[in-house]
Write a structure and sequence with these properties.
With about 130 residues, this protein is mostly helical. Helix content is about 75%, strand content about 0%. It contains six helices and no strands. It has helices at about 5-15, 25-30, 45-70, 75-95, 100-115, 115-130. It is elongated and about 45 Å long.
């Protein structure tokens, strides 16, 4: 399978799950999905930031773990089945972290448009991993 197809499949998996995806991948995929309304830093609690970081780490791990399966998929139908499985796991991870998919997406959008929110997320992530800021 072509690498660009795999990238598009992974991007659509993330988009279909309603979780974070780079804007470039969304545009590459030609997705007509509506972007969630970004939240301001003041509207996001510390607990939501912690939940977002936990969910984001899980989503990234799932995306990485499914990449080899997508590369090995024999055809588009097999790739779609893999994509749907990954999508369900991503949704579960987000919800287990304590956020709805909409909340997660709003925080993603907010972190891209609000430098203060992005800094709060980065600072908390550094604290959670024990890294200096």
């Amino acid at each position: 399978m072509k690498k660009s197809f795999l990238t598009a499949m992974l991007a659509s998996t993330i988009l279909a799950a309603g979780v974070a995806a780079p804007a470039a991948l969304a545009q590459q995929e030609g997705a007509a999905m509506q972007q969630p309304a970004p939240v301001d830093s003041a509207d996001v609690t510390d607990e939501q930031i912690t939940a977002y970081i936990t969910a984001s780490q899980g989503v990234n791990m799932i995306a990485q773990s499914y990449q080899p399966q997508l590369e090995a998929a024999e055809d588009q139908e097999a790739a779609m089945a893999i994509q749907q499985e990954a999508e369900q796991q991503m949704i579960t991870v987000v919800e287990q972290a304590g956020l709805t998919v909409d909340e997660y997406n709003s925080i993603v959008a907010g972190s891209q448009s609000d430098p203060e929110l992005a800094e709060r997320i980065n600072a908390e992530a550094a604290t959670m991993t024990g890294q200096p800021q």
